[in-house]
Amino acid sequence: MADFERTVLEFYQLPSSYPSEWPAEKDAEDAVTDETDAWGNNKRTSRYQALESAVNERRSFLNGADGKGGMNNLVQRDEADPLGSSDSVVRSLKNLGLPMQDDVRLRNRFLLSSTTFSPALFLSQMHSDADTESLLQGLDALSASIDQKSASLKVLVESNFERFVKAKATIDNVYKEMKYRGEDPQTKSHSRHASRSSFRNSGGKLAFSNQLAFPVSDNRKKNALTKESEYGVLGIKAPLLDVSAKAEEVWGPALGGREKEEHLKVVSNHLSKFRDYVDLSGTISDSIKRKDYESLVEGYNRARTFADQARHLGKQLKGATPDDTQLYQILLAARMWHDVNRQVEAFKTEIWKKLSSSSAHSKPNAAAGRVQDQHVELISLLLELGVKESPIWVWLISRYDHLKSKIQVTGDRQKTEIEVLRRRLAASEKPTPKQAGVYLNGLGRQTIDRKPPVNDSVEVIELWEKMYKFLSNLISSQGIMGEIVEFWSLAQGFIDGRTQRTLPIGYNGESQVHHELSNERVSQLSQGARELVEQIREHIYAFFAGLPPEDISILLSPLTPNPGSPGPNNSGVSGSLTPTALRDPRFNFDPSNPPPPSPSRGEPWEKLAFWPPWSNSLSGVHYLSKMLALVGSGASEMATIAPVAAAKGPNQEMDRLKLLIGASRERCVTALCAAWNRDAENIKHVEDWHRSSEVGDVTRMPASFAAFEGTLLTGMQKILYIADATTEQGAPSIVLPPPPKLLQMVRSQYVTTLYKALSGMVENAERSLKKIDDEDWSQAATMYTSTSSAGKSTLDAGDRNVRMLLTLSNLQALRSQVVPSLNSQFENAFSVKLTDESKTIKDVLGQIDARLFQSYTKQSIEKLRDIIQAGLSSPNWVPKPNQRPTAARPYIYEALLTLVLVHSQVSTAAPSLTPQVLSFLLEQTSLQLLETFRTRPKYTLEALMQATLDVEFVAQTLSHYTTDRASELQSQIYQELDGRTDNDARARLQSELPEMRNVLKKLRENSKNEFACFKKPKRAAGGATGAVSSKQDGYSSAGSAAAN
Prior knowledge:
- There is one protein chain.
- The protein is mostly helical.
- The protein contains 37 helices and 2 strands.
- It has helices at residues 2-12, 24-33, 49-55, 60-66, 89-95, 104-108, 119-126, 132-159, 161-180, 196-202, 219-223, 234-255, 261-273, 275-290, 293-317, 324-358, 374-385, 391-426, 433-449, 458-475, 480-496, 519-545, 579-582, 617-639, 642-646, 653-682, 701-721, 740-766, 774-784, 800-830, 835-872, 890-909, 914-933, 941-957, 964-979, 983-1006, 1022-1043; strands spanning 786-787, 794-795.
- The protein has a two-stranded antiparallel ribbon.
- α34 packs antiparallel against α35.
């Protein structure tokens, strides 16, 4: 804001934003502005002249002259020290305690470029502490700066002096020629640039003399560029008038002779009699201009009739002398026929050109109008006029040649453009695993955030689109393949004779011979149709099964579009064949330095021309399914072409089309499996430790993983079976079922990706143990600390235990919902049973779940073991003789407090795991009590009562999490205690039990607030109970191993 205010103050030359009085400098400007001119008129025209002068006039030199330091003298905001001590005067003075940002008048007194610059003030403030030596150095710097600028100006003037002189002389000569009309300026009387002394010397006698008083015959005046000499034309005007008059005198009588009057009457009579002969040539010409082909044919047939009559008349004379009427009939008919035949032949030439160019028209769209029937109209017209060559055959051959050339140019050029983009993308940096995870995560975010998925980078998507466009141009029904089908349909119509039924037979049936196609020509057409299909097949086969092209020199020769071809909007070829697309700067490169081939990094896509470098499996499965659908539909439609379907024998077009589909499918599946495997390794980076909006106990990882795997399975099913390929009814089946080898490849890859994804999830939970990842996870903890969508608590993703709990919850969701759903989808999509694989996957999930559960509970189990062993080994644990225990020992409360902390963490991070975790820890607590009690050889009555009180207090406090194994361990504890006491203690214990129940009841009542989290929830929790029992089988063995 301060910079803006300074700019406004400097522009309007005001001292501050809110001035309290009118600046004195403005009064001086008013005095100057209000001056009158030489005629006595006041120059002041605006009441806002004080502000307008700052914009329009900028009379800084006035205020500079009076030395008042007005605002008009502001030059710039800052500049370097002219003595060379600093690069900023304003900053240096600010450091010295003299801020000048807001006081522009004071600042200008320190700037050398301002007219109010004060040397004394500048030296006293800027160099107040400078010694003599520094001032002398500053003087040298200032002198050198002045000398440098003076020398540069001097060199500029000296180097251009001759040019200045020549330019001045040229301007003076031109001005003299035009102003003084070629005369010497000294003979002129006066000009407005003459001095007052010359005016007085002339006495004013010639000052107002007529400048046109010079002789007119002066050649210099005639050539002068003035209005009086008609700007130099006056000299030749009179001779032209004389020549015109003489021509009139010579040719006038000759044109007006009467001796030819009688002859002209005779000619006129015969012309009137044979007016049809005379008018026919004009009628033909007019019909051609108006494109009225019906009138043209009618007129041409009349002309041929007149010509035939004249020939017949000549034969009848048999050398005798004709009379005037016969003579004029023959002459007029010959003249008419010559003229008409010349026009019609020229017109036929144009029609032949149009017929040849009409073959370049692509398959029409709704806006193309009559493009499809244009060749029929042209053929009909040529047959009507009569031709020597069959227009039907000419059009079919030209159409074949056009399609053949179009296929070659489109295939070669677009594959080369794809290779250039592929090389440049391969030369870029490999995406990091986290970047790859962002795109893999986009699919799951589509449902959550309601945004369109971004499956890959912009460059990769662009290359995929380029490849899809290439295939669409070649083999789609709107591309070249559709033109081939249309071409054969039209050719079949001519072969069968259906189209010729509406075609004319010409004058006297002369064109009837062109209606039929010979067997040889029919055979050539059939062979041509097969060649076009094979040409398309070879391009697509090379694209999928071949190596990337090495030669890209075709881009160096620009494609010249056919002048007769339609625009890009009507063409089936993409914009890459238009001049605009050819100027794409991405395909312009130095011939001596073309884009190098893809660097060899061992990537699977390096030998694949159809796979963009660094593309992931999501974008790959999307575009490959679309591309193979195009290939399957196009191949099926090409198989319906009669010559292709009728070809017999091995290695014919049908077999090669099947080979094309099979090879393309196999290459696509192989490439996609490699990308699928790589993405399965990166799927772990999808985890962001945010709760799912649908299920609060899990993160968004299971949903993202399910969407990822489901998308790939759906797309892989489309690729293997080419389900989206459309075939016409009755068309031969060339899309064969996938071979077992491909199904097994997909089956193995599916199981492998599940293993890798599960391993990555476990790695996410445990990777904080690695030193190398501390920094990454410290950042992740800050980034991913979030509030759960249910509003229950705040997740600390930097806590390893929280991540392990969330991962356990995710694994439970995967095992119960996601993986079974994916297995069912796989079985339905590929019609196979994953019996062995499902069992293996289930076992692996159980092992991973048990291992992670063991890892999470290990620390708590060790802590409980230490607490229980320390408490029971304490000498104060056994009450004094004859002293009844009144409370559980402190180690029991410490152990329960440990479980309270675990309960808090589990219920916050993964509430559904709370029963499983606490039930397991209760079992481990009971197990540790049992093993520790076994270490004592004998128990007195007091020790037996204390042990019973401790065990029962734990069991009743955690009764909601009691399992069969926990009850069994408690029974074993009582058996061990009973086996290590005598009969007297047993008998006395029975009498103490009622009192112990009262003590236990009091303890439970006093501690109900401390251990309220262990109470059974009020709502029904039948589902949780079932989950507990099902969980025990998976955790029991792991827990026993951990305890041992």
